[in-house]
Amino acid sequence: MLCAAAAAVVAGCGQPGDCGDVPLEDELVNPTTLACEVHPPSEPCVLGPNDLTWGACDSACRALDEGTCLTTAGCRAAYDHDCFFGVGPCTRLTPFLGCYPNDRNLDTVTGCAGLDAWSCSRHEQCAGTYRETADGFMYARCVPDPTPA
Question: CA-to-CA distance for 73 and 71, rounded, in angstroms?
């Protein structure tokens, strides 16, 4: 195994399967659907140029309430699109769907308008809105983080 051959190397890599304290995750949150998907890195301990950088499904962000999520670095909020904008039926008590990890490859772009799901997940000042489908959720729009209540 080549521990220093790719774009990002995890500290502690030395033995096959030994990634030290920060192993690369196999189960990642798809920013388009919010579903967890298995995407193992191409090499243990190494994040290669073709590997996905989505946030990990087992992120501590997943347990946070809305207010804490909005003020926690590395976390982003997801909202029911119709409830958030008041444009359709809202069967939820709150538009907040949950807290999810940001992409590991953060972007410093200013503004959230017009961003696709992946780009939105890379921006710490943006939240995603989603519509419920028969299969789960589907990304609708990127919006600036609302002010925590």
Answer: 7
DSSP state of 103: P
Q: Is residue 126 part of a domain?
A: yes
Mention every residue, 6+ apart, whose C-beta is less than 8 A from residue 99: 61, 62, 63, 64, 65, 66, 68, 69, 72, 75, 76, 77, 78
At 18-71, the pLDDT tens digits run: 555 555 667 899 999 999 998 776 666 766 767 788 999 999 999 999 999 999
Residue 24 forms part of a structural domain = no
Domains of the chain: total: 1
Give me the phi and psi of 131, to 5 degrees please. Answer: -105, 140
Dihedral (CA of 24, 106, 77, 140) sign: negative
Q: Is residue 6 part of a domain?
A: no
Q: Which residue type is seen at 40?
A: P
Rounded Cα distance, 83 and 143, in Å: 14
* Plot region of 70 (φ>0 → left; ψ -120 to 50 → alpha; else → beta): alpha
Which helix (H) or strand (E) element contains residue 132?
strand 126-133
Domain assignment present for residue 33? The answer is no
Q: Which amino acid is at 51?
A: D
